[in-house]
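[SOLVED] Need 3D model of a two-part complex

Original post:
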Amino acid sequence: DQQVKQNSPSLSVQEGRISILNCDYTNSMFDYFLWYKKYPAEGPTFLISISSIKDKNEDGRFTVFLNKSAKHLSLHIVPSQPGDSAVYFCAASAQVSGTYKYIFGTGTRLKVLA
Amino acid sequence: NAGVTQTPKFQVLKTGQSMTLQCAQDMNHNSMYWYRQDPGMGLRLIYYSASEGTTDKGEVPNGYNVSRLNKREFSLRLESAAPSQTSVYFCASSADASSYNSPLHFGNGTRLTVT
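Solution:
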């Protein structure tokens, strides 16, 4: 049973417009959420995170929103650029036996069209 | 600024062969992890080491062993490779697995094919 779901395998957006990537989770014990970006033949790169005590975190063009009641988070990229084309993974973590474990979604491939 | 370094980048094994994937980090991180990535499955945790001297199983540990050689190095061993272990393997590190605000930093992966 997938605890972290990214239901859109792919997304295409015009350059300069907003990209919205979505992620849903089922475990209410998760208290820290992250987004990673992955280019082909490279490892995932940490992008932005949010703790469960917040509902929004912003870093430049990237903003993550958390809706705890809906168990939903989203990543907004504004404005989108061709270099943002990559696979985006959301991840959620909870402390188990003193250690934070990360559960990843299956990823959304974003294509930004020039 | 190497970060997390994995070797080899590619490997082809025959069923039943063994091999060790190497990982080293230069960020003085306490915690290290091994993940595998398969199509449609996301990243799944194989083993992790919260600190030097400790290792624990993740979601999919069967068929693997690990060694935390020192603070920098964490290796993953396949004793008898099976086609189901064909995957891309990522090593990661974090400053402290007991802290929530401690993102993972990944290496560039090892693409393993078992025939």
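Edit: The mean pLDDT of chain B is 94.
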